[in-house]
Design goal:
- With about 80 residues, the chain is mostly beta strands.
- About 5% of the residues lie in helices and about 45% in strands.
- The protein has 1 helix and 8 strands; from the N terminus they run E-E-E-E-H-E-E-E-E.
- It has one helix at about 30-35; strands spanning about 5, 10-15, 15-20, 25-30, 45, 50-55, 60-70, 80.
- The chain has a 4-stranded antiparallel beta sheet. A two-stranded antiparallel sheet has the order 1-8. It has a two-stranded antiparallel sheet with strand order 2-3.
- The longest helix has 5 residues, at about 30-35.
- The protein is globular.
Length: about 80
């Protein structure tokens, strides 16, 4: 029996590595919004087949986690046992 991750831990979006774990999001400077773009009212942003979930921590930092924008997406925070 082997255990391996069912999803990548990070994904590169416009040159920025972003976590795919909802429980452990990436903390980025708010300057990253200039590169990534502004999220909608729900805090979601769609870029290159990736859906980003953005939450403002304070005036200087945002937390961001990513998931595949396709139905089914990546299995977040899980692993496959083969």
């Amino acid at each position: 029996m082997s255990v391996r991750s069912a999803s990548p831990r990070f994904v590169s979006v416009r040159g920025t590595m972003i976590s795919t774990a909802k429980s452990n999001p990436s903390l980025l400077s708010t300057v990253a919004v200039q590169t990534l773009g502004m999220p909608n009212a729900k805090g979601e942003l769609h870029i290159d087949d990736v859906q980003l979930h953005v939450t403002y921590v304070d005036d200087a930092r945002i937390s961001v986690w990513a998931e595949k924008a396709e139905p089914g997406g990546w299995l977040l925070d899980s692993c496959a046992v083969l």
